[in-house]
Structures are given as structure tokens and as C-alpha cells.
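Troubleshooting entry. The earlier prediction with AR6 gave an output that would not parse, so I re-checked the input for stray whitespace and re-submitted. Clean input:
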Amino acid sequence: MNHIQILRADITALSCDAIVNAANQSLLGGGGVDGAIHRAAGPELLRECRTLGGCRTGEAKITKGYRLPAKFVIHTVGPVYSGAPDDAPLLADCYRNSLNLARENGVHTIAFPAISTGVYGYPLREATKVAVDTVRKWLEDNRDYLMDVTFCCFDDRTRGAYEEYEKKLSRQ
Ligand code: AR6
């Protein structure tokens, strides 16, 4: 059975088949979760990223995990929050395209950080709704494939937002 869990953790410590990186269009590293993933994976990750030719907002690319416990890193680029109507569809694209790429590569366990909610300024509750709705829809559309999804929250505020939204859905 496909399922979703919410975890407070450092994503670099998780031994999933794949962890998702909230990267930027260059794919050449940065701060936040991106910096943490590159530090933990080692310089081979940057070397492989250099061969990828960047990544457009909403799209996703895959690399090996190198020194990480995870086998793969799926790099996706969230939207810089602007308040425009295409913020939400672009953020949804990140989750959907990451899951599609994961499936194509035989991934069965995947962890996502809260994409765009740090440096990119996406309001946490709005981003949480997009993340959870998109992942639930994908799991429904891919019932023939086993996929366990972890929402990896770095702090209590983020975990609280995910738990609150899950609770709201379970009451419906
Ligand atoms: N494990 C899990 N989550 C983490 C970790 C970690 N080790 N470190 C931070 N977070 P951000 P964005 C959380 O800013 O908003 C980078 O410079 C963090 O608390 O990492 O998509 C890229 O290169 C927050 O909840 O990503 C881009 O330029 C979430 O991860 C830009 O930042 C996302 O915060 C992308 O910005």
C-alpha cells in the first residue's frame, strides 16, 4: 500500500531510495537543504550536476547519491514565490515530476523537503497544501506501483503545518 509519513529530520540522514533536493536552476549548489545535500554527498555530486545543463523551474533531474545513505538525489527547482497564479502549478510540477522520475528509476521510497518554503519565500501553509494534494493525487494515479513518501520537515513549524493539514484532510 502506498503511504505518506511526516517526519522531523535532516534529509541527508535518511536512507530512502531517493531524497529530493530543493535546488536552483544552475544545479550547482547553494544554501539551505541544497548546501546540506552537497556537503553530505561529497564533491562527486557537484561533478555529476555540472553535466546536467541546469534545470528549469518545476522540472526534475536525477543523480546518484554518492556518500549519502540515499541511492539517488532528485534535484528539482521550486518557484521563487511571487504571489502570481502560476506559483502553485509550478510547485505542484516539482512534486509530480520528481515522483515520475523516481518511478522511472525504480525508486520505492522517497523523501521531500518543504520545497520553496525557505530562501524562495513560499508561504508555508500554502506550500504544504500543494505538496500534500499533489503527492496524494500522484499516489492515487499510480496505485499499481509501490511508493512510500516521506515529508521531511527540518523544524517543528514545518512539521506542524504538515500535521495540521493531514488532520484537516482526515476529518473530511
Ligand atoms: N533537511 C531537510 N530540510 C531542510 C534541510 C535539511 N538538511 N535544510 C534546510 N531544510 P531551502 P528553497 C528545509 O531554502 O526555499 C538554496 O540556496 C528548510 O528549513 O533549502 O526551495 C538553493 O540552491 C525549508 O523548510 O529551499 C536555491 O537557491 C526547506 O528545506 C534556494 O535555496 C526549503 O528551504 C531554494 O530555496
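This one parsed fine. Residues 3-171 form a domain with the Leucine Aminopeptidase, subunit E; domain 1 fold (CATH 3.40.220.10).
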